[in-house]
């Protein structure tokens, strides 16, 4: 039976962090569903580092169709959750359906993959993050610590059912570890 993976995101998602996991899941034979605040064509972005800048720059990337609205997601239908980064996490965490979605995967001990700014989404369930260990883009270190979790300096970290990655260059290891947990 094919595994079902839910990817939660929104506009301004980092293009690599949504496309790579989505297509990697399809390649693996999994059913991958992209959820967003509403069903629409999502605007993705490319973050990159430019010499002389103190942070990353953002450029427009590709459009990507979402399949389901957060309010219509039945988390029990899915075997794993992936939360890409970019700027999407800063606003999707405000959606009233997101905490219940995220909570389900942790309470049921299903694999969760969180990369880059996804730590901002994990902050909607601080009671479940307390005592965990994970990594994220360095600018999200305060979000991790505010949940009572331990920020890990490494670029890839696995703790219980949570696979976390620092940023898009870590996607190969991130997806390898997520798929490994999903196949257990």
From TrEMBL:
Record-annotated DJ-1/PfpI domain positions: 3-180
Any Pfam family hit: DJ-1_PfpI
Q: Which family does it belong to?
A: Belongs to the peptidase C56 family.
* This protein's name: DJ-1/PfpI family protein
